[in-house]
Input
Amino acid sequence: MTVTDGESADLAHVPAQEGGRGKAAAVAAPEREERWQKAAFYAYALHLFTVFGLALSNVFLGLTLLAAPRALRARSLAWHKLAPVLLPMGVYLLFLTVSVVMSYEPRVSLASLGELFALATLYLGPGLVRGERQARWLIDGVVAVAALLAIKGLSQYLAGYGEISRRIRGPFSHYMIFSGVLLIADVLLLTALVCGKGSRSLWRWAALVLINLALLGSLTRGAWVALVLALAALVAVRRPRWLAALLPAAALFVVLAPTPLLQRVISIVNLRDTSNYDRLCMIDAGLHMIAESPLVGLGPDMVDRRYGIYRQPSAPRYWVPHLHNSFLQLAAERGLPALAAYLWMMLAGIRLAVRRFHGEGGFAGRRADIYLGSVLALVAFNLAGLFENNWGDAVVKRCALFALMLPFCLEVADAAENE
Output
């Protein structure tokens, strides 16, 4: 067959066109992956910024899960850097599953397997939050949202809230959820300001005032104790000489504080207080639950159903929704190994943050506030957990998992940059 010059030119043009399309596709692919990464990151951010509405927050977390496979496909992630937290999380989920199977009522306990979804805040974060800039943006967003929630809570005084029987609670169903969210945001903000980050920003100081006023107004003693101890630890490592000012500050508080607020503070150490005595009774009941089933517990959501069996006869309440103690609740529901895995997970985040804090020059490092904020937020969360089952609340847990995620986010991002 004879090919003319014109046909020859047309044939020569075909590969050139195909090659052009191939190059265009090669250029478009990274752009598509970048769009997926941005979509996943913003969905992740929105699930944190909408904790005031758990259903809405869950929708954004679900969208993050759907977008994550495409968003992470093109990234070279050092997943082995996450092993220190993924391993205890896996053990935790294993014993959760076992406790569901061995539960007194497996059908009731089955709903607790949804915790695999809730933990996505932790295991997705390091892949989606790419470095310091995005981490700081998320921290600022969480603090800003907490300030808005504080305004909502303080405005409730106008509607007759404020008494011990009707505490301010912001947009939440319970004042302890309100105080739990404010506590974590407050510690992150305080750490940043003490470390000199954003100290010239007026909105941060305004947020600090609003959050702490609302935290005081919530009358939540466990959150107060956790905040004071976290602040004392921060001052001790950053400005040891300032510790001497804590006693005069406490004396000034006693002089200026309204009498109902002062009485609430004094009640913390009053064992005759009905609420305090009730918690002691819950500790006794919880220890008996653990003694009965130390390895797998009674089963998730079984503590409230079986509390009457273990209740002390003199306990003020015949029924409680939980044991008002995260550690006791975990061990009673899921067994001591699950509690150990939880503590392992928390300590993994604290250990990494401390190691990177020292490795980057301590307070001279530019990210010192992120590392210290993560540590102190986790410490405050767990101190408050001695008085309330805040790990059992999805909203407060989400904020704590965000704090736990921060050092792993920077660890993975730095490893990716160095490859």
